[in-house]
Amino acid sequence: MTQPASRQPVTKSVETLTSGMSSIFSQISSLVQSEMEMETAAIEKRFERETIARLNERLDEPFVTVNTVTGDKGIKQAQDEYQRLMNLLKDKSEFRCKPKAEPSLLELC
What we know:
Blueprint: H1 8-60, H2 75-97
C-alpha cells in the first residue's frame, strides 16, 4: 500500500528523526557505560588504598599477650599435659614390647 504524496515527506522526517534518536541513545549508552567503568575503577582504587591504610595501621599497633604459668591455660599445665601424653606413649610402647611367653622368647621391638 503506497502512501499519498503529501505523507511521504512526513514519513521520511519521522524515519530520519527515529534513526537520529537511536544513534543518540546508543552514544549516550556508551558514554554512561564508560563513565560507570571509570567510576567503578576509582571506587576500587580508593577502597584498596583505604584497606591497605587500615591494615598498616593495625600492624603498627602494639599487641598485648598474657602469659600465665599456672591455671587452666598456663605453661605448667601445658607441660604437664605434654609429659602425660609422652608417658602414655612410653607405656604403650613398653606394653607392646613385653615378652608374650617365656623370657627366653623375647621379641625385638
